[in-house]
Amino acid sequence: MSSRIDGDKSGQVPSRVRRILRGPQPESVPGLVGTAVMIVGLLDIAAGVFPRFRHSRIHALAEVLPVFGPFAAALAISAGVLLLLLAHGLKRRKRRAWRAAVVLLPAGAVAQFLYRHSIPGLIIAAVLFALLLRHQSEFKALPDPRSRWKALANFVVMSAGSIGLGLLIVNVHPNRVVGNPSLYEQITHVVYGLFGFEGPVDYAGQVSWTVGYSLGALGMLTALTTIYLAFRPEHPAARLTADDEGKLRELLAKHGGRDSLGHFALRRDKAVVFSPSGKAAVTYRVVSGVMLASGDPIGDVEAWPGAIERFMEEAKAHSWTPAVVGCSETGGEVWTRETGLDALELGDEAIVDVKDFSLAGRPMRNVRQMVKRIERNGYTTQVRRVSELTEEELERVRGAAEAWRGTDTERGFSMALGRVGEEGDGDCFIATAHRVEEGDTSPFGDLKAVLHFVPWGKDGMSLELMRRDRAADPGMNELLIVASLQAAPGLKIEKVSLNFAMFRAALARGEKIGAGPVLRMWRGLLVFLSRWFQIESLYKFNEKFRPRWEPRFMVYRNSRDLPRIGFAVMQAEGFVTVALPRLFASRRRPKPVRTCTHNHMTAVPKQPEREVQAA
């Protein structure tokens, strides 16, 4: 029996061998090739830079022919740098990265072989080249939105990298250097070499050719990539068109009461995909390769799967990382069911039911006392629809909101509209605080604070913006929120969405009796982080108005995407700005004041005057 079994085994190829012969799964090829290309790029650079990498029989020929060896070294370095730049694009399945890699892999392999007679380098490049050709159908991703600012970024990064690599090239030939050049002379030699000129450092033998060609290749590579990025056609990020906005408003008119964040889909810096029936839509923005949707899909819940499918198709076509921030529990269930993505609870949204709100009772004592004190100081309030304001009043509100902003950039994405009183927004609400003061020179007259709400269906509104004059008394936000809630019945408003409290459940449960050590430790970390970010203070501020809490979720593909998605959310919300420094600003901004833009899914960094603790 054992003989027969052994005989059967001898006639079969083991499964592990079959898997090796079959090669990697097609869906894993981009990631595998991207990592391998990065390694090959590093090897190409090392082959062109370090003398020890090029000892071989053919090296004697390179020493005899002055141009042969240095040219191969420069080609190896150039191919290596470009392959490093392409590695990320290959991992993201970009078609243009595939085309460039198909050309550069053979070029780098030939350069390595000519310069250091590398058989393994040829084999590795040949295997990767074959994988790229065999699985070219896996590399179909379309280009990302881009602008010519990337040309400047490329110039800065490539220049710094070329100078660093150039210093390495200058110093890897210590036995051939004539004299003892200083660091300044070495840097000067590198800068001259990048422009194709001879520098102050001299070498014995043919090394000066190798160093000169290599530095010249780096300089040419920096110039050519910058010129290419500067003159290639722009692919601007998609924006909401007037036609798209009209369709979204129609969907919101029918289904806007389902989600308090629905109106924020009308931000002009978002793009939109509609379901095949046109009865549902998903709005999004692409940030750092992340296709970031916010809130629930707009429209009929039955049509959500169609819109979500279109969203995922768009993400796949461009190889963007799909993510959703701030969706409701229902939205999270639909997203995870239709796409196989995972969901993570981020925090809770504070919602006040107008019929249940009252300043009476001990729990509301602090708010009640603060509001009475401010009213005694001569402050009055008005709560109106935007359509009721005159153009002069609107301009004053816009100017005040801009002047009182505590940051250089407007914050908000998932739960902010980003505009006040523009065409089509007449159904929004404005709450303002006023006080007439003798000798007041404010350009905004008696205006001291502003709250801006957007519609939430026909009987709700959602807080979008909170701004106040730094010279006004503390408690302006509390005053205007109370005024808005008290005026709500007259405006036929039954529910009001306030701020978003990140990790609210952990903070609330962690301070209760019986909380376990892990929960207490987690709460302690959040309290510690609240020294720099408004995590606990924003929760406490919302809690003053006795709201009900509705959980909000983030939907993501896998855990390793979370850091990238988190960075993209920070960029979208305005907490991380990737932009040129304002070196020649005409004036300095005033010292930041505590301002609050509604519902950011990322904790708000502290400002010097934090009105959330004014009570």
Question: Uncertain spans, ≥5 residues at pLDDT below 50?
Answer: 1-11, 55-67, 580-615
Q: What percentage of amino acids are in beta strands?
A: 15-25%
Largest sheet: 13 strands, mixed
Radius of gyration: 31 Å
Oligomer: single chain
Estimate the helix proportion, in percent: 40-55%
Compute the average pLDDT.
80
Summarize the structure.
With 615 residues, the chain is an alpha+beta fold. The protein has helices at residues 2-10, 15-22, 29-49, 59-64, 68-91, 95-116, 119-134, 149-171, 183-194, 207-231, 242-255, 304-318, 329-339, 365-376, 391-403, 476-487, 504-510, 517-529, 536-543, 562-573, and strands spanning 177-178, 202-203, 271-274, 280-287, 290-294, 298-299, 321-327, 342-353, 380-385, 429-434, 447-456, 460-468, 495-502, 533-534, 548-556, 596-597, 604-605. The chain is elongated.
